[in-house]
Amino acid sequence: PPTPKSAAATAYYTEVQAALLREGMLRTDPGAEIPLTAEMLAANFLRIALFDEYRRKASGFVPEETESRLRRWSVPIRVGLRFGASVPPDRQATDRARIASLVDRLARITGHPMLMDETAPNFWIHIVSEDEREALGPAIRAVLPDLSAGDVAGITAMPRGTYCMVYALSGGGSGAYTRAVAVIRAEHPDLLRLSCLHEELAQGLGLPNDSQQARPSIFNDDEEFALLTDQDELLLRMLYSPELHPGMTLAEARPIVLSLARNLVGGDG
Predict the structure, then answer these.
(1) Which of 164, 229, 165, 191 minimizes the C-alpha distance to 21?
(2) Looking at the predicted structure, is the pLDDT value of residue 63 above 90?
(3) Closest listed residue to residue 44, CA positions, set 204, 234, 225, 203
(4) Is the CA virtual torsion 187, 87, 141, 245 positive or negative?
(5) Helix, strand, or coil here: 12?
(6) Residue 53: strand, helix, or coil
(7) What three-state secondary structure class fits 265?
(8) Is 237 in a helix, a strand, or coil?
(9) 201-210 pLDDT, tens per residue?
(10) Going along 154-219, which residue ranges are E strands?
(11) Are 178 and 206 in contact (CB under 8 A)?
């Protein structure tokens, strides 16, 4: 049976999802009716891919948007799932099927090798209850030893307003990701849970920031869209374009990004 802490979290996130749905949020359509110009797409890409939502300090990550460098994976991505004992077998089977389908979709969008691999993963997804997440520190340190105590506490003491999270790390500051860990709350109801999977897997590919101007997009804190939109697919295609490479600065990437956006959307909008 769930612990009191987990039961309370289940009730809370069930109401969160219900409230968002009442407000017309958590849309599952691709947002095809929303106008998008090449300039808008380019600006959204630069804000989402070349800026960080958080600044890393000794105490951990703190909210502060800062300019960064382009990051993405250069090695094949091997996704492994780690379920807490609280997650029943039927729920595990549903999550596993959904994640496998999403991994296949992301591989097709980006053209980057990405597959499920339980034996030697480099992208771990933990689906855990409140109590299990609070005890996750040793497992996180084992696969991401470079994280500070504050970073790890960001996971084990995740505030209630953070629905899920992902840490992706590059080797030696190169911008080329080599490892990532995503944490999804097991207490989430169905749509909020699926929304977290879409957002954290996509962010873990190299789109770390959010933008209030990005619409339609899951890279927007307003929760209007629950699942990857048409624009999000374009952002991922741009991220893994051969014209870009890990470590590029904002100034280096800007003219290339605008050219890519014009090729994808057509003309100047």
Answers:
(1) 191
(2) no
(3) 234
(4) negative
(5) helix
(6) strand
(7) helix
(8) helix
(9) 999 999 999 9
(10) 164-170, 176-185
(11) no
Distance CA 117, CA 121 (A): 6
C-alpha closest to that of 41 among 239, 243, 240, 200: 239
Give 170's strand partners.
177
259-to-47, 240, 244 alpha-carbon distances in Å? 16, 14, 11
The candidate with the shortest Cα–Cα distance to 187, out of 44, 7, 1, is 7
Q: Tell me what the mean pLDDT of segment 248-263 comes to.
A: 97
- Name 250's Cβ contacts closer than 8 Å, sequence gap at least 6: 46, 50, 67
| Statement: residue 35 has pLDDT above 50 | yes
Residue 70: how many CA atoms within 13 Å on its side-chain side?
24
Residues 122, 180 contacting (CB under 8 angstroms): yes
Q: What is the distance between the alpha carbons of residues 2 and 138, in angstroms, rounded to a whole number?
A: 23
Both tokens assigned to 149: 């105590």
pLDDT in tens, 164-195: 999 999 877 799 999 999 999 999 999 999 99
Contact assessment for residue 246 and residue 74, using Cβ atoms and an 8 Å cutoff: yes
Mapping DSSP onto H, E and C, the string for 79-102 reads EEEEECCCCCHHHHHHHHHHHHHH
What is the spatial distance between Cα 51 and Cα 201, in angstroms, rounded to a whole number? 18
Annotate 120-139 with DSSP letters as a single string. S-SEEEEEE-HHHHHT-HHH
> At residue 155, what are phi and psi to the nearest 5 degrees?
-90, -55
User: Would you give the distance in Å from CA 115 to the centre of its chain?
Assistant: 16
